[in-house]
Design brief:
Two copies of one chain form a homodimer.
Chain A (H helix, E strand, L loop, with lengths): L6 H18 L4 H7 L4 H8 L7 H11 L3 H4 L9
Helix pairs in contact in A: 2-3
Amino acid sequence: MFFQLPEEEVTKVFGRNLKKLRLQRKLSMDKLARMADMELSQIYRIENGRVNAKLTTIAALGKALDIDPNELLKIPNLPHD
Amino acid sequence: MFFQLPEEEVTKVFGRNLKKLRLQRKLSMDKLARMADMELSQIYRIENGRVNAKLTTIAALGKALDIDPNELLKIPNLPHD
């Protein structure tokens, strides 16, 4: 469950989810940035887990991607370690 | 849908959800603050919609309350206007 992740994993997993959802929709970082009224550099840093995004930024991204919070804040299915 | 809220409503609705969930669990602000390793003043400001919480803060609160993202980031049922 996403909220149970160690703090240092939260931004990384969020970034990976964002990238996956963006690519599923065949959107470039630049296109998503324009849809969410953000800078491309911010999308890049969030996808790389280097930004601890604020709630309104998360909402702007979720709105642009037209998804539920549970789709963006989730632990993806991973192959077995 | 939470992500569709106007930006100025996002922090307000989030704060109201947090307060409701905290009270359902019969937790004081002080108790929740200690559970989430935060300052009481931060809980207070978030519940009042005056803080744009960061992702790791949202996760710490969600972890303390043991809930899903969709429970914390949702539009509550309101009486008809």
